[in-house]
Design goal:
alpha/beta, TIM Barrel, 2 domains, eight-stranded parallel β-barrel, two-stranded antiparallel sheet, 14 helices, about 35% helix, about 15% strand, binds flavin mononucleotide, flavoprotein
């Protein structure tokens, strides 16, 4: 059992490698996709993105998933989001994929269409729909689309309802973007089917009021997502893994439920999705509307546990996982197969390496040698000084020898 004692070297669940199709991750820690709003209006990855993902890969993560990357310009959340809608996007992303791999992690990328929740400003400007003030700053709003002409909230724009032809055209965009992600060398494609974006909005009765083959009963509401998955599976080599991030529930009366997710995930797995990446909420633009979801430690573990038990598939869980023993316990309890970290990785990009040291008592052996060799010796030296009763403040506190 995981507790505050270390587990015997080689027995940690978190540090047991994971093979999925042609992909072998050195451990079960996945860096959750995190938009950086740093792509510029052309959606191209730059040096900043290299540094962003590189530090996580050097930090020892098994898998690093690049941020939500839009399949078409109007599918971006905000002007700074990355894109995969043209061949121009491939080369800069290929540098990121190559860097992630060269540092020992499996490289992944998330693909998104933000649907009716597109055209917003970054979180530090409010994370709300773009308006006149944003236009003055050079970031004008654009027209958004969705399954139905239903806005995400009172202050949100009315989406244009997609026709059947629009739906078919967008399936092709997903497949083309996935092919580019494969060309860029990514080993995992994570589909953003959560947080109220286009795929999720087809599933949720709160956003999908259609009466055709893509609306109404759950079989119809799942249709678009399944068509996207089928098209992507057909477009990419077999060895590339597909992860599907879904909102396991809306947490709102009349919305998508955990039971719906069980049905949906069984279909995803049957279609060649390899990992269910379990998130939740976001169905509307009101961040406080999902009152049934409590954001405590490991807040998606109760949902990922159900999805794992009911579908038999591999499942990732995310949400306030901050401690190595907590992560180990999540896996040991059968709540997930993969532990994803977001903000904790921003706080400490070396979290996976530290977790390994904490869990197994290993001494920097898994770090890249350029750092690990030095850190091992640093540890010996610090212990020696500690044994001699010396502290970093000895020289200044009047208690040491002042050398
Ligand atoms: C800066 C930032 C950007 C994010 N961008 C994305 C994203 O692009 N795609 C996504 O699915 N989730 C995104 N998220 C959500 C995270 O992936 C993660 O699910 C969430 O932060 C909860 O995990 P945590 O408690 O470990 O941070 C973002 C979160 C943060 C903090």
């Amino acid at each position: 059992m995981a507790n505050s004692e270390s587990v015997a070297p080689g027995t940690s669940a978190l540090f047991t490698p994971l093979r999925i199709r042609g992909v072998e991750a050195r451990n079960r820690v996945m860096i959750s996709p995190m938009q950086q709003y740093a792509g510029g209006s052309d959606g191209l990855a730059g040096d900043y993105h290299l540094a962003h993902v590189g530090r996580f890969a050097l930090g020892g993560a098994g898998m690093v998933i690049m941020e939500a990357t839009a399949i078409e310009p109007i599918g971006r959340n905000s002007w700074g989001d990355l894109g995969l809608w043209s061949d121009m996007h491939v080369e800069p992303l290929a540098r990121c994929a190559a860097l992630i791999k060269s540092c020992g992690s499996v490289s992944g990328i998330q693909m998104v269409h933000a649907g009716r929740k597109a055209s917003i400003n970054p979180p530090w400007l409010g994370g709300m729909p773009l308006g006149a003030a944003d236009a003055e700053r050079g970031s004008p709003p654009w027209a958004v689309i969705g399954p139905s002409a239903v806005a995400a909230g009172p202050e949100w724009p009315l989406p244009m309802e997609m026709s059947a032809a629009d739906i078919q055209a967008s399936v092709v965009l997903w497949a083309n973007a996935a092919r580019r992600a494969a060309d860029a060398g990514f080993q995992i494609i994570d589909l953003h089917g959560a947080h109220g974006y286009l795929l999720h909005s087809f599933l949720s009765p709160l956003a999908n009021h259609r009466t055709d083959l893509y609306g109404g009963p759950i079989e119809n509401r799942m249709r678009y997502c399944y068509e996207v998955v089928d098209a992507i599976r057909a477009a990419i080599p077999d060895e590339i893994a597909i992860f599907y991030r879904l909102s396991a529930l809306d947490g709102i009366e009349g919305g998508w439920t955990l039971d719906d997710s069980v049905v949906f995930c069984r279909g995803l797995l049957a279609r060649g999705v390899d990992v269910i990446d379990c998130s939740s909420g976001g169905a509307t633009g009101d961040r406080k509307s999902d009152t049934r979801i409590r954001r405590g430690y490991a807040f998606h573990a109760p949902y990922s546990r159900v999805l794992r038990a009911e579908t038999g598939g591999l499942v990732a869980t995310v949400g306030l996982i901050v401690d190595p023993f907590q992560a180990e316990a999540i896996l040991e309890a059968g709540d997930a197969d993969i532990v994803a970290i977001g903000r904790e990785a921003l706080f400490n990009p070396n979290w996976p390496h530290h977790a390994r040291n904490a869990l197994s008592g290993e001494n920097f052996s898994a770090w890249n040698k350029e750092a690990g060799w030095w850190l091992k010796r640093r540890g010996f030296l610090l212990r020696e000084l500690e044994n001699q009763g010396e502290t970093p403040m000895s020289r200044y506190s009047g208690q040491g020898d002042g050398q």
